[in-house]
Amino acid sequence: MTDSESSEIEKDKGGRPQRVFDFDEIAQVESLASVLSVEMMADYFGIAKPTFYAIMERQPEVFERYKRGKARAIGTVAKALITKAQSGDTASMIFYLKTQAGWKETQVVDSISSDRSMSPRDMTDEQLKAEREKYGIPEPE
Fold first, then answer.
1. Residue 45 belongs to domain spanning
2. pTM of the prediction?
């Protein structure tokens, strides 16, 4: 057996042949990336999700086109969001500032009632003990 024959035998390990995307399928990956997740993309091509990941690893151009398609879609939506925010759409402004500028909504709870009837008050230890006894509340341990 020659060296070339033995290397061919080593390469042929049986099983299914590896799936390779052609030029048209690679172009489809880019156009579909804007609307499909990796799992949906695999379903579209009739393959399992791990197979799609394996293809992206073996064919870096598939992965690059997937990322480019996602980035273009994100860019388009972001541009539309900024346009709406700049035109005065309050919800768009708030969303943009929350996601990009770290804005947070906080709610302040005022524990003092307007007539002060339900307002917390300072109690001495003796008064607190008397209130606990009055309502049958045991002393904390």
1. 16-100
2. 0.60
